[in-house]
Amino acid sequence: MPRSHHTATATATRRDEALSRRRRVLRRQRALAGAALGAAVAVIALLATDLISSTPPRRHGVQVQPARDDAHPAGGRTPRTPSAGTYGVGAITLHLVDRTRTITLPGGQVVPRPLRTVVFFPTVKTSRMSRASDITHRPPASGRFPLIVFGHGFDIMPGIYARLLRYWTSAGFVVACPIFPLENPRAPGGPNENDLPNQPADMRFVIASLLHLAAQPKGPLHGHINSGEVAVAGHSDGGDTALGLAYDPSLRDRDLQAAVILSGAEIPMLPAFKIAPGGPPLLATQGTADVVNLPSATATFFNPAPPPKFLLQLLGGSHIGPYTSDRRQLASVEQVTTAFLQYYLERDHAAMRHMLRAGNVTGVAHLRASS
Known about the structure:
This protein is an alpha/beta fold. It is built from nine helices and twelve strands. It has a single domain, classed as 3-Layer(aba) Sandwich (Rossmann fold), CATH 3.40.50.1820. Strands 1, 2, 3, 4, 5, 6, 7, 8, 9, 10, 11 and 12 form a twelve-stranded mixed sheet that branches. The longest helix has about 35 residues, at about 5-35. It starts with a helix and ends with a strand.
């Protein structure tokens, strides 16, 4: 047997063993994080799965919850330098369908690729809202807001990231969270990580769908998204997904303005994956005690990435805790990511100073900058 075949087989075996180990550890950490989040996560999980109570109308392959069709047209522009808590948080669920691609169900049936997407958007904050976590049924606040498309991790629903997603929204961002059709815990036949290479195209489709809806006079987000201020973000496999869309030459979306990779890595099923020059500004975060995506996985893509780039090291941080339940590290992640996005999407120069302060907290986090 040729030596090259032995090498390829050994590489595939190591990759499969590594993925299996990641899944086992991830399930344990997810269970711990989920227990810590409690009711706060349940609110967003409910929004992610049960917002649609009737069969809504279909528009261009998109199903929209009818109650949000009354969103009023926006005038003006969102204020610069919004801080967390400036806005209330509203949410809708979109039933997007990419009819140009398919998935195969366990019984062999081939269907168009479904991408149910929870969209959080800024609303006018009222005196009755006691916490930034309150979800309102008000229409979007007046103005055009930057768009963040966020990818969840393997065998996880977006609800586990409830606090971080609400923080971004209350600071003045529209945040779209697609539920990947074959990697989520309710996927037909169980979650399948081998679908990961298909997810960058899912993110691309969601971006295009949101921009399309924002341009439609009767769309639920009409006039509320700035098409020139788009970023991708993601955690774990969702971070791999965002990384591919932002930097790999075969997957890349050149219109992205920023990328936030939370404990992500290069897509392991793509041996030719590489970081191409000319990608958007990068913020990578990494727990130093992460045993699912090791710190070396972040270094592999961060080191060759072009500047400007930033690495937020979460001291003693695990794979999931800093983005869900570890309050001190989550506070640093919230502030650093928000300031990074404000700086590179909205050109708010004051945000850079805040990012550097929030990213350097003794015993909690250290921010490394390369511009």
